[in-house]
Design a protein that fits this description.
Shape: rod-shaped
Oligomer: single chain
Structural class: mainly alpha
Radius of gyration: 35 Å
Largest sheet: none
Low-confidence stretches: none
Helix content: over 70%
Distance between the termini: 119 Å
Length: about 80
């Protein structure tokens, strides 16, 4: 009887270990998935740091506007001549 009781305990412990292993595997997969997403957030932050700011865009637009005005003025002058 004592031997049967010990075998039942061992089997119960093996089942608990199996269940714990499954839980650990699931948690590890979840953690891996979260880390992949966090790496993407880091990449996005780096990209945002490299983007042009409003002042740079406005400066380029002003320069383009000046060039367009100059070309339009030259075109008007040539049409009048």
């Amino acid at each position: 009887m004592w031997q049967i009781s010990e075998e039942v305990k061992i089997k119960a412990d093996a089942a608990a270990v199996g269940q714990s292993t499954d839980t650990i595997s699931h948690n590890l997969e979840s953690l891996t998935s979260e880390l992949v997403h966090k790496a993407n957030v880091k990449d996005i932050c780096n990209l945002l740091d490299q983007k042009a700011n409003v002042e740079d865009i406005n400066k380029v637009l002003v320069e383009l506007h000046k060039e367009i005005d100059a070309k339009a003025a030259i075109g008007s002058y040539q049409e009048q001549a």
